[in-house]
Design brief:
36% strand; alpha+beta; 8-stranded mixed sheet
């Protein structure tokens, strides 16, 4: 277990989580809401990824878990810069109707940010969110992130280019 926050827990990825992660990667609804892209992956590819999952100091990947639903998604920090004390934040929540819209994304965001500031001594966390992903932008705003600016036409989805909205939060700005 890494961190508890309200009714969620963040923990390390285990083999039992692979199917949920694979389903999220292969879910077109989730893929459409993230800034990057992902190709469909097979069960075999997923197992190989897990076997080679890097344990380095540049990434922190965690599973979001609730007592009621079990594993429901993941949050992570990437590009951790230990000199400048910064990292990029990413999240994915399962598309199940009983999970979406319940505030789990906001709680998971707050949990990982709190952990990053209090345990890892990071100073600033940033996130890039595709312009039409309003739910992710709301979760950032509710957590204390500030809108830094716009990266114009950075993402190509569904036949057109979209902006990335840059959000960041500094130590001391987290809304509890």
């Amino acid at each position: 277990m890494i961190f508890n926050y309200d009714d969620i827990r963040l923990r390390a990825i285990e083999a039992c989580d692979l199917e949920m992660i694979r389903e999220m990667i292969n879910d077109p609804e989730i893929e459409n809401m993230i800034g990057g892209y992902s190709f469909p992956i097979s069960e075999h590819q997923q197992k190989k990824w897990f076997e080679n999952l890097p344990s380095n100091d540049k990434e922190l990947r965690t599973i979001i878990e609730t007592e009621e639903h079990g594993a429901i998604g993941l949050v992570m920090l990437s590009d951790i810069d230990w000199k400048n004390r910064t990292a990029q934040f990413h999240s994915k929540i399962a598309t199940s109707k009983e999970i979406r819209g319940k505030g789990y994304g906001t709680k998971a965001t707050k949990a990982l940010i709190k952990y990053a500031f209090e345990q890892l001594n990071l100073n600033l966390i940033y996130s890039h969110i595709i312009d039409y992903n309003i739910a992710s932008q709301r979760a950032k705003e509710k957590s204390g992130f500030k809108k830094d600016g716009v990266l114009r036409n950075r993402i190509y989805k569904n036949g057109e280019y979209h902006n990335l909205i840059v959000w960041s939060i500094q130590k001391g700005e987290l809304i509890e």
